[in-house]
What does this fold into?
Amino acid sequence: AWKVDIEKLDYQYYLPLLFHGLCETEYPYEFLARQGIHDMLTRGGPKILPVVPKLIIPIRNAMNTKNHQVMCTTLRIVQHRVASADGVGVALVPYLKQILPVLMCYSFI
It folds into this structure.
């Protein structure tokens, strides 16, 4: 449970922090990162768009782990992020060059 209303959180600080937690595979750290991101994306609305540039490095780091579970979780969260607010998908386009090469080097089979 959050001690503070999610809408009052500093998204510039907490959302990138939680995205850095995507690399975690140990409970409860991985759960806290995933649930915190989900909660913030669900209720963040327009606060998400300005944070997009700060989320690229944690996403790339999570994808570079080559851990199947971490990569799948990260892709689901990116999908959720794109659907979370207007303009987030478009704001992500300039950064695809940094994220997509990781997928080309990894075999999902």
